[in-house]
Specification:
The chain has 383 residues and is mostly beta strands. Helices cover 7% and strands 51% of the residues. The strands form seven sheets. A four-stranded antiparallel beta sheet has the order 3-2-1-28, with no helix packed on it. A four-stranded antiparallel beta sheet has the order 4-5-6-7, with no helix packed on it. A hairpin with a 6-residue loop joins strand 26 and strand 27. The chain is globular. The relative contact order is 0.12.
Length: 383
Amino acid sequence: MFRQVMKILLQIVMLISPILTVAQKKGAAPKVFDLVIGTFTGDAPTASKGIYVYRFYEESGKVAYLSEIETQNPSFLAVSANQQFIYAVNENNGATPSTVSAFKFTKSTGKLELLNTQPSIGSPAYISVDKAQKNVFIANYGGGSLQVYPVNKDGSLGASSQTIQNAGSGPNSARQLQPHVHSAVLSPDDKYLLAADLGTDKINIFRYKASKNPPLTPADVPFFQTAGGSGPRHSEFAPNGKFMYNIQEITATITAFSYDGGDLKELQTINMMPNDFKGTNGAADIHVSPDGMFLYATNRGTVNEIFVYAIDQATGKLTAVSHYPTGNNPRNFVIDPTGNYVLVGSSNRVIVFKVNKATGKLTQINSAINMESAVCLKMIPVE
């Protein structure tokens, strides 16, 4: 009898073991990611040629080349919610018109396939896509406009369905003679879009509803006015959705906001640089760690560093922690989804920092990618 019971139990274990293994794999956090890099391109032999894909290994911080696709000046990228499509602006400032491109993306191989392109009316510097994959938004730095492009069922882009042209200027005559829309960021619930205009010192706020025509309409409070001459550039929401942060390029300042249904209230504005700083600022990118504990921001110009701030979880306010050299022109960076690494693109390489998740402090590791003008980095988990 005992042997029969043990035999039955063994058979049960053998039956459920594969199920448990699959469940464990499905619940396990990804350890491997595709690192997708947009660049400024050129004709020189060493110049970058388009979008590059590397495999990033979280356990070691190492990278391995996978693929690339030629496309002109893909200076900013957006990844669809299902991770099957990548959208890029093709930012041109000369005789060649700027465009917006849609690519099919295969995570397992890192392969990109061009689906189509659409023209933009200005020179785009930022692109985003809603979670429902209904519309793509671009911020035209050159020309000062915001454009909406519908997404077709196959992931390609339709013709622009809405254009919002900004007007006005700012007090800095060298940088703010006209509007310069520099980002278009969706709220965590996809109900609002916030577009920072460097040229007019405004963060414009729009209600967003994909089913409406037009999909963007001004919010009840249609904009937040930042300090004159500050030049708002990029914005980032905290994971809890209660706070939003905006980095201002010209003055290298960061503003912390409380956020509630399209309503921004300023909590704090801090200087990245000391008051007696005499160099040139070029504050660029801003991101919050996945656990919401720290904020990271870059400043170009004379400094060329990445800065670390602790976030007070109750108030959303920032406290400076430290700062680190990055190489020239740290225009963009990415925090890997595990929060263990920060990768920074510079004028001639991508450098990798290991994160101390308790303190937010960074340590550069020997895992750089030699690449000209890496100006946008995105991370995609590989199943």
